[in-house]
Amino acid sequence: MDREAGTFTLQLATWHNTYPLETLDRWLEFYREQRSIFSKCRDTYDETIELLEKAVAERDAA
């Protein structure tokens, strides 16, 4: 998380991307929804959701 730049980077084994910090909650909601909709692929979303939840906790701790 780069508070000065107002961004966070989501990095997994095969890809990464940087997003505006103000979109963090929307991305978490999106991935939770995807996990719910595509229950057969549920496990594929777990790591992303965990990373986003940690980022939310870090953001809120400041």
Could you please describe the fold and organization of this structure?
- This protein is α+β, with helices and mostly antiparallel strands and 62 residues long.
- The protein has one domain.
- Helix content is 55%, strand content 16%.
- It has helices at 24-37, 42-61; strands at residues 7-11, 16-20.
- Helix 1 runs antiparallel to helix 2 (42-61).
- The longest helix has 20 residues, at 42-61.
- The radius of gyration is 12 Å and the shape is globular.
How many structural domains? 1
Percent of residues in beta strands? Answer: 15-25%
What is the residue-mean pLDDT, rounded to a whole number?
Answer: 94
Task: Give the topology string: H per helix, E per strand.
Answer: EEHH
Give the helix/strand class. Answer: alpha+beta
- If you compute it from the alpha carbons, what radius of gyration comes out, rounded to the nearest whole angstrom? 12 Å
Give start-end ranges of low-pLDDT stretches.
none
**Major pleated sheet:** 2 strands, antiparallel
> Got a strand count?
2
Q: Please give the share of residues in helix.
A: 40-55%
